[in-house]
Amino acid sequence: MTGTGDGICRGRVVVVTGAGRGLGRAHALAYAAEGAKVVVNDLGVGLDGKPGAGSPAQQVVDEIRAAGGEAVAHGGDIATSEGAASLVAAALDTFGRLDTLVNNAGFLRDRMLVNLDEDDWDAVMRVHLKGHFLPLRHAAAHWRAEAKAGRRPDARVVNTSSGAGLLGSVGQGNYSAAKAGIVGLTLVAAAEMGRYGVQVNAIAPAARTRMTEATFAETMAAPENGFDAMAPENVSPLVVWLGSSASAGVTGRVFGAEAGRITVMEGWRPGPTADKGARWTPAEAGEATLKLLAESEPPQPVYGA
Ligand SMILES: NC(=O)c1ccc[n+]([C@@H]2O[C@H](COP(=O)([O-])OP(=O)(O)OC[C@H]3O[C@@H](n4cnc5c(N)ncnc54)[C@H](O)[C@@H]3O)[C@@H](O)[C@H]2O)c1
């Protein structure tokens, strides 16, 4: 890390949620290495969202500062309006501006649907979906005010979806629904916020963090030598570019990011279609649908199916 401020994010102020460990930490360090001033948010919860031993955000701030960069810690809960508002305020009060928001914080409560408690549904929907909406909402209000005051922002939002949200994942009904919701939110935010100079994209990452190192131990393991494909640091370069002014014109898109691979995810679009020009009977609808299915691409498999 240079921390000298001569990279592609020089002069930008970047907020990263859940940046005390895992992917968020890697993003925060990578932004600082490209010259950004970083607000490092983390509530410091356990893998299931239950209270942890305290926020690891300050450690990441210390690492950035030790390398010559600028950062400040924020320990609030991003799924509360107060936490999200104070996160945006931390950027403005400390560094005088806000250019990029990376929504990344989250946790898991994996269960088969038949065993999934209402609490586990609510907690996961809350941290991912509301935890994306609220910081976005508060940042958007700031950027709209800037645009209306004649200071058009060159702002960026990077949201964090997941392959589970795009393709489905057995045992993760709550998480898959929340991560699919984040894609819908991304599309709407990109369409609504473009007029204020804000671009909004999402990534579906995969990397070795406490979220994956036990469940997918073999895939995630670091090799003894050679490219450590599943290191979280491999996801961050795309996130940094999307959060920089260099990504001008790219908005409303979803990218797969893992190891050395970047993938443009191509989403729902109309496939084979039939129009009777009048109401079908159920039997006719069935016959037509089976014909259309035979002409269509088979769906991608659900993870773990
Ligand atoms: N690791 C992967 O392969 C993978 C794959 C797909 C998606 N993701 C997503 O990437 C993001 C980061 O995950 P990770 O693997 O680095 O996990 P992680 O557990 O290492 O990091 C998540 C961080 O978010 C923090 N956090 C949780 N709730 C919070 C809240 N309410 N407010 C503030 N901070 C909070 C936690 O304390 C933790 O430090 C998550 O959204 C996750 O769903 C990860």
Automatic annotation (TrEMBL):
Q: Enumerate the UniProt keywords alphabetically.
A: Oxidoreductase
Q: Which Gene3D superfamilies match?
A: NAD(P)-binding Rossmann-like Domain
Alphabetically, the GO molecular function entries are:
oxidoreductase activity
InterPro entries referenced in this protein's UniProt entry, alphabetically = KR_dom (IPR057326), NAD(P)-bd_dom_sf (IPR036291), Peroxisomal_Beta-Oxidation (IPR051687), Sc_DH/Rdtase_CS (IPR020904), SDR_fam (IPR002347)
Pfam families from the xrefs? Answer: adh_short
This protein's source sits in the domain of life called Bacteria
Residue ranges of every copy of the Ketoreductase domain listed in the record:
12-206
Stated EC number for the protein is 1.1.1.-
Do you know which NCBIfam families this protein is assigned to? PRK07791.1
> Hey, which family's this protein in?
Belongs to the short-chain dehydrogenases/reductases (SDR) family.
Q: Which PANTHER family match?
A: DEHYDROGENASES, SHORT CHAIN (PTHR45024), SCP2 DOMAIN-CONTAINING PROTEIN (PTHR45024:SF2)
Protein name according to UniProt: Putative short-chain type dehydrogenase/reductase
Specify the species.
Streptomyces jeddahensis
The taxonomy runs: Bacteria, Bacillati, Actinomycetota, Actinomycetes, Kitasatosporales
